[in-house]
Amino acid sequence: MRKLVAGKLHGIHVTEANLNYHGSITLDPAHCEEAGILPMEFVEIWNKNSGARISTYVILGVRGSRCCVLNGAAARTCQPGDQIIICNSIYLAEHKITELKPTVLTFDAQNNVVDRLTYSVSFDEENRYRFEILDDNAKPLSVPLLVSGAS
Q1: Which of 3, 8, 38, 150 fits a 20 to 30 Å CA distance from 60?
Q2: Mean per-residue pLDDT of the chain
Q3: Catalytic site residue 57?
Q4: Residue 128 covered by a domain
Q5: What whole-number distance in Å separates Cα of residue 62 and Cα of residue 56?
Q6: One of 21, 55, 57, 151 is an active-site residue; which one?
Q7: 125 part of a folded domain
């Protein structure tokens, strides 16, 4: 079993940091549902502003609020306005990787969804892994990464 990305909120902005709460991150249920993040699920959080990396669990806030509130100890790692990445994961047998299609949401400064992307792994004609980022029409956004100088 491998630990793989299951969904991601990329570039969502912290709306509040509440040190005097029991802990966790409070998120808009609509964002969570779309990215496949469950209430009480553990997520990893990466702060793009400070580089801080933490793990906590999700609680649901008010639907439609576009909230992203760090609570308890997590509030020490992020400040309102910080841009963060929230990622959940799944354990999956390697042979099932092509079945996994994580949803990645990107955000503007008001936490409105800007892009709905999908990560996709397939095999090329030589049976090597191929990774693509697809837009909401299932069209590739980027060319697979190539390592220069490899022989």
Answers
A1: 3
A2: 92
A3: yes
A4: no
A5: 19
A6: 57
A7: no
- The three-class DSSP label of residue 116 is strand
- Classify residue 126 as left (phi > 0), alpha (psi -120 to 50) or beta: alpha
Identity of residue 114: V
CATH of the domain at 11: 2.40.40.20
Asked if pLDDT for residue 148 goes beyond 80, the answer is no
Question: What is the reported pTM?
Answer: 0.89
The sign of the torsion formed by the CA atoms of 7, 11, 12, 14 equals positive
User: According to the model, what pLDDT value does residue 23 have?
Assistant: 76
CA angle 106, 129, 136 (to 5 degrees): 30
State the average pLDDT over residues 64-77.
96
Judge whether 124 lies within some domain.
no
Query: Is residue 8 in a domain?
Result: yes
Kindly tell me if the per-residue pLDDT of 142 is higher than 70: no
**Tally of structural domains, the chain:** 1
Whether 24 is catalytic: yes
Distance spanning both ends of the chain, measured CA to CA: 30
d(CA 70, CA 36): 19
Percent of the chain with pLDDT over 90: 87
